[in-house]
Amino acid sequence: MISRYTRPEMGRIWEAENRYAKWLEVEIAACEAMADEGLIPKAALENIRKKARFSVDRILEIEEETKHDVIAFLTNVEEYVGPDSRYIHLGLTSSDVLDTSFAMLLREALSLIIHDVKELMDVLQERALEHKNTLIVGRSHGIHAEPTTFGLKLALWYAEMKRNLTRLQEAGHVISCGKLSGAVGTFANISPGVEARTCEKLGLTPAPISTQIIQRDRHAQFFTTLAILAGSLENIAVEIRHLQRTEVREAEEPFSKGQKGSSAMPHKKNPIGSENITGLARLVRSNAMAALENMPLWHERDISHSSVERVIGPDSTILIDFMLVRLRRIIKGLVIYPERMLENLHRTRGLIFSQQVLLRLAEKGLERQKAYVLVQRNAMKVWEEDLQFKDLLLADRDILTYLSKEEIEQIFDLQYHLKHVEDIYKRVFTG
Questions:
Q1: Are 285 and 227 in contact (CB under 8 A)?
Q2: Does an H or E element contain 135, and which?
Q3: Which one of the listed residues 141, 267, 299, 420 is annotated catalytic?
Q4: pTM (2 d.p.)
Q5: pLDDT one-digit tens code per residue, 273-314
Q6: Looking at 340, 365, 391, which one is the last position of a domain?
Q7: Which residue out of 3, 68, 173, 262 is catalytically annotated?
Q8: Which domain holds residue 311?
Q9: Can 141 be counted among the known catalytic residues?
Q10: Would you state the pLDDT for residue 1?
């Protein structure tokens, strides 16, 4: 199911071919850096550049015997390069290659995720402009509150995605870090200069200090950033699910020709895309917890983090890619029912204007708590007796002591609630 919506580029990042290609890229960059410093012959470097390659099948075959993936990789590369392979991995340890290449993989995946976020933001902005003045009742605690617009909902989601974009960019900066500092980070067999040159060639920043590994707070920031993004996507999805409920039916996911909602009930149109997003957000959050638990490691390293990252690296980035693509398609095709929104808005018979009545009474000099009692006693009759709020106010002598009938009529103007929509839009889309 996920592969139908995930761009193939994301899946390819985590395939063995690309992973080993990144390892080789690190090894060759290190050889280039060492040659720059006169530590290995230029002729050997040229031979390595020319001949270095690998076979995924052969690496796996060797690993069956060695039980060590990096050694299996180096053994296979040596088979292609010949004697000059002695300069490959010179002074390095496995984590120099693994951590540096993992940063490159995460950075590559992140570039696609950022692209997805920007595309979703474009659709959110487009639909927000379309529904800038489409009235809908606002809800708090699930209960009707005051009027708002559907465009403001979309603008709110746009602003949240904008913050996610900033967080992703910061996480990308933090994770784009490499290290070639050796077995415990002391540069015993390789110089800081080689590390700096290698990282520069790879477009990475060298870790100011490391052990055998790069510290996992960087990775925790990356995966918790994805978890926050997943939470934002779920937030939108949950709202869509509510709006599609039969009792509400103010908006619904696109339902294509030939689509079926239920094997038993032919009438069903279910918000399955949004439900998928809700469920997958749980996985991304749980992966973030695993990344946080990777932070405390024994001394200068252990490998308890390694097995975790082999799962959460591809899983979280592929899931987020899927969720973003799916939500963009849902928002783009979201079916909106403005008439139903207005119908629901009036369902509480004018109660949504109760705050305006309260404020007008206070403005006329009535103590706020006394005004609250007057408004509430009329509001409760609306709930209990299915009466119109405005009619009750117009018949309440205590209310009429402070407000004229004309002033009461003016309170029930929906446009009152839209007077600052344009200001909000300027803040969101031009601020």
A1: yes
A2: strand 135-140
A3: 141
A4: 0.93
A5: 999 999 999 999 999 999 999 999 999 999 999 999 999 999
A6: 340
A7: 262
A8: 92-254+261-340
A9: yes
A10: 46
